[in-house]
Amino acid sequence: MKTFDYVITDPVGIHARPAGQLVKVVKELAGAGSAITVTKGDKTVDARKLMALMGMGIKQGDTITVGIEGGDEECVACKLEEFFKENL
Predict the structure, then answer these.
(1) 86 class by beta-carbon count within 10 Å (0-12 exposed, 13-18 middle, 19+ buried)
(2) pTM given for the model
(3) What is the CATH number of the domain that holds 52?
(4) Which of 10, 23, 71, 74 has its CA 20 to 30 Å from the CA of residue 34?
(5) How far apart are CA 67 and CA 47, in angstroms?
(6) CA distance 48 to 34
(7) Structural domain boundaries, residue 51
(8) Is the pLDDT of residue 82 over 60?
(9) For residues 50 and 52, what is the distance between their CA atoms, to the nearest angstrom?
């Protein structure tokens, strides 16, 4: 399993628009057989679930951990890190 931490810089956090974009990217990448999760504190959700992501209440300054298991973990992690830097 490959993981990375990211501190949210978007002033509004993970709200509807970026959450929807994230789910779209995750679904494309998870098609390669990867399971992708987002963890904040003690709560972990499947990154393909829009309402679960939005329900985490992730705000600016929060640190999240993204976990990738299966498929090409390194490649998927690089693409996700790039997405987070550009959008969140």
Answers:
(1) exposed
(2) 0.85
(3) 3.30.1340.10
(4) 10
(5) 9
(6) 11
(7) 2-87
(8) yes
(9) 5
Tokens (6 digits) for 36: 């992708």
Cβ–Cβ < 8 Å for 41, 2? no
What confidence tens digit (pLDDT) does each residue in 19-73 have?
A: 899 999 888 887 656 799 999 999 999 999 999 998 998 999 999 999 999 877 8
* CA separation for the pair 82, 75 (Å, rounded): 11
User: Is 34 exposed, middle or buried (CB count within 10 Å of its CB: 0-12, 13-18, 19+)?
Assistant: buried
Please report which residue ranges of the chain form alpha helices under DSSP H: 16-30, 50-55, 73-87
The residues carrying an active-site annotation are 15
List % helix, strand, coil for the chain (3-state, nearest 5): 40, 25, 35
